Amino acid sequence: MYYLIIILGVVFYYLYYKGVIKIRSDKKSEDTKNHILNQAQKKYQKGELEKKEYDKIIKDLKEE
């Protein structure tokens, strides 16, 4: 019984290491992207962000 658990653990680790199994997603959801964009727009309008920083945020969100 213990050997079965060990073998399954090794198989799952190998598949996770190779990228077949993903535990969490690296991509941001659309809601998160929209929230970040809205916050950046508000800060840019208030003058808390410079144009370069605002453009970089937009560029980074589009790349993902």
SS elements, strand count = 0
Shape: rod-shaped
Low-confidence stretches: none
Arithmetic mean of pLDDT: 84
Order of helices and strands: HHH
Strand content: under 5%
Total of domains: 1
Helix/strand class: mainly alpha
N-to-C terminal Cα separation, in Å?
44 Å
Rounded to an integer, what's the Rg over CA atoms? 21 Å
Let me know the largest β-sheet. none
Count of helical stretches: 3
Fraction of residues in helix:
over 70%
Plain-language structure description:
- The chain has one domain (2-63).
- It is 73% helix and 0% strand.
- It has helices at 2-18, 30-46, 51-63.
- It starts with a helix and ends with a helix.
- The model has no long low-confidence stretch (mean pLDDT 84).
Q: Top keywords for this entry?
A:
64 residues, mainly alpha, 73% helix, rod-shaped
Tell me the layout of helices and strands.
Elements: H1 2-18, H2 30-46, H3 51-63
Helix pairs in contact: 2-3
Overview in brief:
The protein is mainly α.
